[in-house]
Amino acid sequence: MNSPEKSHELRERLQRLLAEARECGAFEDLRPLLAGALEVRAELAADSGAVPMRYGMVGDAKPMREMYALLDKIVPSEVPVLVLGETGTGKELVARALHAFGPRKGKVFLAENCAAVPAQLLESELFGHKRGSFTGAVADRPGHFVAADKGTVFLDEIGDMPLEMQPKLLRVLQEGEVRPVGSNKVTKVDVRIVAATNRDLRAMCKTQAFREDLYFRLAVVTVQLPPLRERKGDVAHLVRFFLRSMEKEMGRSATVTPEALALLDRWRWPGNVRELENEIRRCVALSDGTIRPQDLSPQIRAAP
Predict the structure, then answer these.
(1) Quick one: which of 72, 97, 162, 167 has the most CB atoms within 10 Å?
(2) b/e for 39-65, b at 16 or more Cβ within 10 A?
(3) DSSP per residue over 160-184, as a string?
(4) How far is CA 7 from the centre of its chain?
(5) Mean pLDDT of the 182-201 span
(6) Distance (Å, rounded) from C-alpha 21 to C-alpha 37?
(7) Cα-flanking dihedrals φ and ψ of residue 133, to 5°?
């Protein structure tokens, strides 16, 4: 923990940087000043015990700061965005940030996992259906794109969308139209689409497992989420954040020893942030209020 004198010094340095930034007109001159201000902000956050967050996401590692900088540019727009990243990196958080901080804030946000829904049901969920169009269709259903008109639809695991359904999604992107299952009429919609995947869509296009024209329509802007193992220093921030969350969720407070935190920081986290969250939840439930090395999962304790 830094001293009060150190905190005061950091705040004075931040004020000087901001004052210089206000006097600076050229973007290239402004960039190093802003970078310095961000470094000071990170030190202040560490000094106060605060968890560094932006756009609802925890982290201050360099790859996260680069991702935040990209979001700064695209949040005000309404272009389609393709979010790439391993499982558990927080792709839906990016989609929610684009909606909540963008021009469609306050409108409907709907999410669908294309890998978790059978093909026929997925088509109905997204595009709607008419009564009697298939067994079980006892009433008209508008579908996500109509229900989220003027809002945002997030399509997770877009690489698992059936090939025969992809032209319908392409029509939404190109023409702003949807046609429900069993209907010959189209409905105009105004929806921002954010898609996400952990698959290589470019490779899938080459094997014709994914439509190339749809890929280019979805990937107007691509956001790459870094895996947790590449986010130096963020494990400690996330642990602190999850401990506070678990106190509210489970009614139990806990702390983590430096030795346990070192083991958590050393683990590669193949399941990324989601795996870390589950590990902390498990430790809070099983520990006596202090998370020690012996409270961690065996594979984390045994990692070289």
Answers:
(1) 97
(2) bbbbbbebbeeebbebbebbbbbebbb
(3) GS-GGGHHHHHHHHHH-EE--BT-S
(4) 31
(5) 93
(6) 9
(7) -75, -20
Q: Is 244 left (phi over 0), alpha (psi -120 to 50) or beta?
A: alpha
pLDDT tens by residue, 37-54: 555 555 554 444 689 999
Would you state the pLDDT for residue 133?
A: 65
One-letter amino acid for residue 46 of the chain = A
Query: How far apart are the C-alpha atoms of 238 and 64, rounded to whole Å?
Result: 13
First to last CA, the chain: 29
Distance, in Å, from the CA atom of 222 to the CA atom of 61, rounded to the nearest integer, reads: 20
Mean pLDDT of the region 84-107 = 97
Q: What is the pLDDT, as a whole number, of residue 263?
A: 97
Please give the pLDDT value at position 3. Answer: 47
**Collapsing DSSP states into helix, strand and coil, what is residue 224?**
strand
| Residues 6 or more apart in contact with residue 251 via CB below 8 angstroms | none
Contact status, residue 128 vs residue 112, Cβ threshold 8 Å: no
Query: What's the topology of domain 66-224?
Result: Rossmann fold (3.40.50)
Q: Which two tokens stand for residue 92?
A: 């839906």
pLDDT of residue 120: 79
On whether the CB atoms of residues 119 and 163 are closer than 8 A, the answer is: no
Enumerate residues 6+ apart whose C-beta is below 8 A from 196. Answer: 82, 83, 84, 85, 91, 92, 94, 95, 154, 155, 156, 157, 158
